[in-house]
Specification:
Elements (H helix, E strand, L loop, with lengths): L1 H4 L2 H14 L40 H17 L3 H8 L2 H4 L4 H29 L3 H28 L31 H20 L4 H21 L5 H24 L4 H8 E5 L5 E5 L3
Antiparallel strand pairs: 1-2
Length: 294
């Protein structure tokens, strides 16, 4: 066991680098198109894009593919030391760190229902305040999280990896298809991490179009928070390190691709549907949702 644990420090360093540093290297990537800031409030969602970008341009650039590939390779590299990392993180002196448990509870909540609440809440706020930018941000971010969640669910079910808390906690145990029927075999990848990174990637990409000058602020905040969600999943023992790394890469890919697809296809079904939804005051208080159909 002593020889195995000697690998833990560098493995943890590799994990932190992959979750917190690699995704942020994407933030300096220039957007394919930047929408012209609006000076008047439109009646529908902003859908005008410059015509300079080729329609056939890939949704994920070559540079981004290299970064995502590096994250996938990191996840594979951590497979042999997943168990040693888990054991180290569950040492009594690590679990007793002041404030760690409370912090992980917050980030676990954020990675679960929190990402959906943030996305939908931003959309509702945009509609309630007649803000096309907030409406677009919330709608597109929610769509990215939904796409990421579906992708993660399929991979979880197909791989059937055993979770760390299952006795005997074998990190190498994968049973194809078992994840669709057994909740304790849905470890790979981390769904919370996937959703958090999808939201981070989509929020950063939306900011490039809506508020280009704020990307340098939004990107590190969004990706840093998503990284904290991933680390919290390790700390509470719900996932292996490789689950988190692969989830981060999958979520980033889903967020970038979904956001860019929606911006490159003005008038898409999602934007049309979001434009048709109206929030009006309810006679009983609060807001009522109405959907206008042609």
């Amino acid at each position: 066991m002593r020889a195995t644990r000697s690998t833990t420090p560098w493995a943890v360093a590799l994990l932190v680098t992959a979750t917190a540093v690699l995704p942020q290297s994407l933030r300096s990537q220039a957007p394919d198109t930047v929408a012209t800031p609006r000076t008047t409030l439109p009646t529908t969602l902003p859908t005008t894009l410059p015509t300079a970008a080729p329609a056939a341009a890939p949704l994920v650039s070559t540079r981004e593919r290299w970064v995502l590939g590096a994250m996938a390779a990191t996840g594979l590299a951590l497979l042999p030391v997943d168990r040693s990392i888990a054991l180290e993180l569950h040492e009594p002196h690590v679990q007793r760190i002041d404030g760690a448990r409370g912090g992980t509870d917050v980030f676990n909540l954020l990675g679960g229902p929190g990402v959906a609440v943030l996305g939908l809440g931003t959309y509702v706020l945009g509609r309630a305040t007649d803000s096309p930018s907030l409406t677009t941000l919330g709608g597109h971010a929610t769509a990215a999280v939904a796409v990421a969640a579906m992708a993660a669910g399929i991979v979880k079910g197909a791989t059937g990896r055993q979770r760390p808390y299952v006795d005997p906690g074998d990190a190498d145990e994968f049973v194809a298809g078992r994840g669709f029927s057994q909740g304790n075999r849905t470890s790979f990848p981390s769904g919370h991490t996937t959703a958090a990174f999808a939201l981070a990637a989509a929020a950063t990409e939306e900011t490039r179009h809506l508020w280009p000058g704020h990307v340098r602020l939004v990107a590190p905040l969004a990706y840093g928070t998503a990284g904290a969600v991933g680390l919290s999943r390790l700390y509470v023992g719900d996932h292996w390190a490789s689950d988190v790394i692969v989830g981060a890469g999958l979520g980033t890919l889903a967020g970038l691709a979904t956001s860019r697809y929606l911006w490159r296809h003005p008038g898409n079904r999602l934007d049309r549907w979001l434009s048709d939804v109206t929030l009006v005051p309810s006679p009983r208080g609060g807001l009522a949702v109405t959907l206008h159909t042609p």
